[in-house]
Structures are given as C-alpha cells and as structure tokens.
Amino acid sequence: MTSLVGKLGAPAAEEVAASGVTPVAAPALSARAAVLAQGLTYGALGLLAPLALFALWQHAVTQRWLAEQILPPPTLVWQSFVELSQSGELQDNLFISLSRVLWSFLIGGGAGLALGAAIGLSRRVRAYVLPSFEVVAQFPVVGWIPLLIIFLGIDEGPKIAAISLAVVVPVTVNTYKGIGNIPRPLLEVGKVYRFTLAQTLLRVVLPAAAPSVFNGLRQGLMQAWLTLVFVELLASSEGIGYLMVWGRQLLQLDLVVVAMIVIGAVGLALDLGLRLAEAPLARWRRAAF
After folding, report:
1. What is the model's pTM?
2. How far is Cα 75 from Cα 87, in angstroms, rounded to an integer?
3. Nearest Cα to 267, choosing from 201, 231, 221, 233?
4. Structural domain 74-288, CATH architecture
5. pLDDT in tens, 183-195
C-alpha cells in the first residue's frame, strides 16, 4: 500500500481504496468497457441499413411513387401488427409455426446426429451409406413434397417430414466431417488410457467434434425455419407463412409486410439464442479435455 500511495499520492490512493477496485482489477474493467463500447458501436452500425431502408420506404410513400395497395405506409403496417397482436391471431399462427419447427428440428436433428456419427465412426457405414446420402442430399425439399403428400396425406405429416429432411442434411454433413477431422493423437490417447467406447465418445469424440456438430445444428435450425415458411406458403391453412398467403389473397399487403418482419425477427432471435448456448459448450469442451 505504501508503494501505491507513493505512486498515486494520498488522495488518489484513498479514492482507489474507497472504490473497492484494486490496481489489478482496473485493467480488466477497462478491457470489459472497451469490449462493451465496441459491441455498441457494431450494433449502431448495424442499425444504419434498416434505418436507411425505413427512411426510403417513408419517402416513397410520401412522394406516392407507388399506390398504397402496392406499398402500404409504415403507419398502416404498424396498425395491422397491433390489430393482429390484440386479436391473438399473430400469436396463434406463430405458435403453430414454431411448434412445427421444434418437432422437425428434434426429428431431423436427432436423425442427422445418429447418421453423421455412424458415417464418421464406421468405415463400413461410410462406404455403403455416404454415396447414397450425397445423392439424396442434392434433392431440393420442394421435390419431396408431392411424394410426401401421396404417402402422408395433406395434414401435418408432409410438413413435418419436409422440414425434417431440410434439417437432416446440414446436421449429418457437419457431424461426420467434425468426427473425421478429429486429430489421430487424441484417439490414440484414448487407447492408451484404455477408454471404453462410451468413454471415447464422451471424453474424446464429442468434445473434439462439438464445434462442427453445433454449427450443423445451427444451420439445421435456420434451414428448418426457412423451409417452414416455404412449406406454409405452398400447402397450409395456418401458420406465419399462411398469414402471408392470406394477406396476398385479400390484397392487403400490410399483412404480408407484417408477416415478413415477424419471420425475420424470429429467425434472428433463434440464431442469437443458439449463439448464446454456444458459450456453455466451450466451457464443457475445456472441462472434458
């Protein structure tokens, strides 16, 4: 404390002591403040494009470049959003869409993890299954819909199946590539410690392949959300995609714009949620190793 008083002087040392911040903690707080400032700066820059687009939209409406039936004003879009929210129609359709995404993500993600792990861990499965999988993965989801309707009907079955197929491909590819890229010395360490198969999977394979697997799950969830909207646009009587079709049929483009904004906002929220879930994954990987 004597050296601190000598360097800062008595008043400055008393202020530091009163604040409870030690000289060691001060640089850490400064680093956090810098990171926070950088994040706020990026956030502000990210708002420039939406604000410019909104200004152009408002200017186009004010100048009457297009008719109101083609380009609804922002006030009408906001009014439609409030009315749909107050009536509960927006929440009901959004809940239906999110339920479809959840079930499809669980089915497609689980199947993709199992298939990707089998391809990555077994040379025999890779030899027999991988070529066929790569061919099937080239089919667009829309190409499956007529066949799925024939076998599963027109209810929820073909919708869930089509969205699940969109999830399976990225999850499978990222899983078997993540396992295939595991360094051989890590596997040799497991053999040296005489790990069982379960221990090798939990202590070596999963931690090493976790970033690639998690990236596949993120891609799968985004594909599920995008495919959901596409499927609901084609064949559905409820959901956020159907809300867009309904607005188009009624020539109420304000409903279409509301649905588009909600789709973008929910997709962004899903992606941010998975990014936040990645932090505990990193801590688990360090603990596993």
Report:
1. 0.75
2. 18
3. 221
4. Orthogonal Bundle (1.10)
5. 777 777 777 777 7
